[in-house]
Specification:
Blueprint (H helix, E strand, L loop, with lengths): L4 H21 L7 H15 L4 E2 L6 E4 L10 E7 L9 E8 L6 E7 L8 E5 L5 E9 L4 E8 L13 H7 L3 E5 L9 E7 L22 E8 L2 E8 L8 E6 L5 E9 L4 E8 L6 E5 L1
Parallel strand pairs: 1-8
Antiparallel strand pairs: 2-3, 3-6, 4-5, 4-7, 5-12, 7-8, 9-10, 10-13, 11-12, 11-14, 14-15, 15-16
């Protein structure tokens, strides 16, 4: 009788080899391989057959809590491992949260004027999940970093606030430089946007209704008119979006942020940057 063990063993070996780069990076003993397979579907749709180096620690790192205190506000830090230069830089970073209703959480485009292609923000996590970033360098290579986060309910957590009042208050923006600006040196800046960033999946505990999704979808930051950071994001970013990023000041100039949401409302903020005295921010709707 012909044995079926050998073909099955070959299939199993191939599957293990396929998942090995991800399994090696996972730190949780109860990781579900099906969640990795789901990511592979999104990978194919976004990156087709391009090779992604799963050992990207020399290029990009992702920091996230292994168990989040609040699934609706999970702090993450995506850290580039080298400075941006005109000849070698990270031009885009994608953020995926596998088990969120929409796994694609956003993408961030950088330029040499960014100084450092690092970004910190806060995200929602709906279920225990792999969270991963894919970085593309200017030579077209892709690198990944991955973490497993234990959190649940961040996208569907009940809302206990007045939706109309939140929407009326949306649009206050604060942009600030986080220290003494030095010409030619990457400087940390912070952008804070007052916005409900609703998912459309949370029941309001007062009205018992589901408010429609309403969130910030695009952020553009420039310095003296030159692009520093462009972010295309969705409701996976937490309420009141907060971003920390870098730019390179070159003498006196202006750092400006332009924000758009899903109702096509637009908000702006600008900060005057002087090499020497501490910078002061101005905000406008």
């Amino acid at each position: 009788m012909k044995s079926t063990f050998r073909p099955i063993a070959r299939v199993a070996a191939a599957t293990i080899a396929l998942l090995a780069p991800y399994a090696a990076q996972a730190t949780q003993p109860d990781d579900d391989p099906d969640k990795v397979v789901r990511w592979l579907d999104f990978k194919q749709g976004t990156f087709k057959d391009r090779t992604i180096d799963a050992r990207g620690d020399a290029v990009i790192k992702l920091d996230a809590p292994s168990r989040a205190a609040d699934a609706a506000v999970v702090p993450i830090a995506i850290s580039a491992q080298f400075p941006q230069t005109s000849t070698h830089y990270i031009k885009e970073i994608w953020l995926f949260i596998d088990e969120n209703p929409e796994p694609y959480a956003g993408s961030f485009q950088f330029t040499p004027e960014s100084g450092l292609a690092s970004i910190e923000t806060r995200v929602r996590v709906e279920d225990y999940t792999f969270m991963r970033v894919i970085a593309e360098t200017n030579d077209g290579h892709l690198y990944s970093a991955i973490r497993f986060v234990k959190a649940s309910g961040g996208c569907s957590a009940p809302a206990d606030k007045d939706d109309d009042a939140q929407e009326r208050a949306a649009g206050a923006v604060r942009l600030q430089v986080q220290g003494q600006a030095v010409a030619g040196k990457a400087e940390l800046a912070q952008l804070m946007v007052r916005h409900p960033n609703r998912t459309g999946m949370a029941m309001n505990q007062i009205t018992r209704n589901y408010a429609t999704a309403y969130f910030v979808r695009k952020v553009d930051v420039t310095y003296n008119g030159q692009p520093v950071l462009t972010a295309d994001v969705n409701f996976s970013i937490s309420e009141n979006p907060n971003f920390r990023f870098y730019f390179v000041p070159k003498g006196k100039g202006e750092l400006r942020a332009h924000i758009e949401d899903t109702k096509n409302k637009q908000f702006e903020a600008a900060v005057a940057v002087n090499v020497g005295p501490a910078a002061e921010a101005t905000t406008m709707k």
